[in-house]
């Protein structure tokens, strides 16, 4: 009896794989997501200041103003462009520059006279990440150049305690290391929900779900077949992306055990594929399913700790997100892939994923059984 049920689950899963193989758009989505999607997310404009466009209005034309102009250089800034005062507003309106620094007339003379002159910094705040960090950079650069000019030499204050900075797990602070691995985790959740949900909706739209209902198979067998087949596809795509895109193409070092991470991803897939089936039983069509996807994926990705640390979120959000599988996948993924943690460190995340997956599967199965009865 058990052998027959397992055979049914296996054959139905193979049927799902053949259906996916005959769907070129889904195949393209899988390949694109785990190749181009990972690469572009890792190599896109970083959060740190990088090649910011800056223009300078030098109305003083003094040695001090020339020092300030020459202090801006790559990689934080592009070479500054000297423009006139009346060009500032049109250039910012056109989005040509993120920063426009205006050095007023007689600036050097006022500095040496101790009159505390002001420099105006115009910032295009629509470029939020660069505007926030760049304003601080520019203030430090201008202040440093003015102090050095006034003192005649660069003066460094000797502190009684020396701070030695050690960046662990990412010594070069390279954004691609973090972005590529976190994007794989996000795509594991996204693709598993899309594939399982789309598979069920496709069968309902094509009328093949009625064929399954007249066969000697149960709702549990149908659902388990979709879970293992679509989960396997996502797991294979994620492992290939880890090897060929992250390690070979982006040269991101993996500190821990990839098989251990894939085991955690498999447990997470047990939950997310069940979520996809649950959402497909609610949605009546693919457009409705897409709207449910947006409502589900955005909180899962933004509040799971992959973009911002969970510790910085409100306590109620932290507690609620403990019920999300992506929260625990991010925790174990960062621990294993970044810090080289073993099962003795991440075992609690595995237990959480097992419990969450069982819960999602149970409720999705009940909903799936109800929807099947309504079709019969």
Walkthrough of the structure:
The chain has 376 residues and is mainly alpha-helical. Helix 8 packs antiparallel against helix 14 (325-338). It is 66% helix and 4% strand. The protein has a four-stranded mixed sheet with strand order 2-1-3-4, with helices on one face. It has helices at residues 2-21, 24-34, 36-43, 63-70, 88-93, 107-112, 128-151, 175-206, 208-213, 219-249, 258-282, 286-302, 315-320, 325-338, 343-375; strands spanning 54-58, 81-82, 99-103, 120-123. Strand 1, helix 4 and strand 2 (81-82) form a beta-alpha-beta unit. The protein is elongated and about 95 Å long.
Strand content: under 5%
Largest sheet: 4 strands, mixed
In the predicted model, the low-confidence regions spanning at least 5 consecutive residues are: none
Cα separation of the termini:
25 Å
Order of helices and strands: HHHEHEHEHEHHHHHHHHH
Q: Which structural category fits the helices and strands?
A: mainly alpha
Number of strands: 4
> What number is the mean pLDDT?
85
General shape: elongated
Tell me the strand order in the biggest sheet.
Answer: 2-1-3-4
Determine Rg (CA atoms, Å). 28 Å
> How many helix segments?
15
Q: Specify the helix fraction band.
A: 55-70%
Summarize the structure.
With about 375 residues, the protein is mainly alpha-helical. The protein has helices spanning about 1-20, 25-35, 35-45, 65-70, 90-95, 105-110, 130-150, 175-205, 210-215, 220-250, 260-280, 285-300, 315-320, 325-340, 345-375, and strands spanning about 55-60, 80, 100-105, 120-125.
């Amino acid at each position: 009896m058990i052998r027959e049920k397992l055979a049914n689950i296996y054959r139905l899963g193979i049927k799902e794989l053949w259906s996916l193989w005959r769907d070129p758009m889904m195949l393209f989505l899988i390949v694109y997501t785990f190749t181009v999607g990972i690469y572009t997310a890792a190599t896109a404009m970083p959060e740190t200041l990088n090649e910011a466009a800056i223009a300078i209005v030098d109305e003083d034309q003094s040695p001090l103003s020339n020092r300030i102009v020459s202090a801006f250089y790559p990689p934080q800034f592009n070479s500054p462009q000297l423009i006139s005062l009346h060009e500032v507003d049109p250039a910012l309106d056109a989005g040509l520059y993120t920063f426009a620094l205006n050095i007023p007339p007689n600036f050097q003379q006022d500095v040496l006279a101790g009159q505390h002159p002001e420099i105006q910094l115009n910032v295009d705040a629509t470029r939020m990440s660069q505007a926030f960090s760049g304003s601080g950079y520019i203030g430090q650069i201008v202040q440093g150049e003015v102090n050095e000019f006034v003192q005649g030499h660069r003066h460094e204050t000797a502190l009684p305690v020396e701070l030695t900075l050690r960046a662990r797990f990412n010594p070069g602070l390279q954004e691609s290391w973090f972005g590529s691995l976190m994007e794989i985790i996000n795509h594991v959740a996204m693709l598993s929900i899309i594939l399982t949900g789309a598979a069920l909706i496709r069968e309902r739209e094509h009328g093949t779900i009625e064929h399954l209902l007249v066969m000697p198979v149960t709702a549990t067998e149908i659902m388990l077949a979709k879970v293992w087949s679509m989960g396997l596809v996502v797991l294979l795509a994620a492992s290939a992306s880890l090897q060929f895109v992250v390690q070979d193409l982006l040269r991101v070092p993996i500190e821990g055990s990839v098989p251990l991470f894939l085991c955690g991803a498999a447990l997470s897939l047990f939950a997310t594929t069940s979520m996809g089936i649950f959402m497909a039983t609610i949605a009546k069509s693919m457009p409705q399913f897409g709207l449910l996807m947006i409502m589900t994926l955005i909180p899962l990705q933004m509040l799971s700790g992959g973009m911002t640390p969970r510790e910085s979120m409100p306590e109620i959000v932290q507690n609620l997100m403990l019920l999300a599988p992506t929260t625990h996948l991010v925790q174990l993924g960062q621990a294993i892939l970044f810090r080289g943690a073993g099962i003795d460190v991440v075992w609690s995340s595995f237990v959480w994923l097992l419990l969450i997956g069982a819960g999602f599967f149970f409720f999705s199965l009940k909903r799936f059984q109800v929807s099947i009865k309504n079709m019969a």
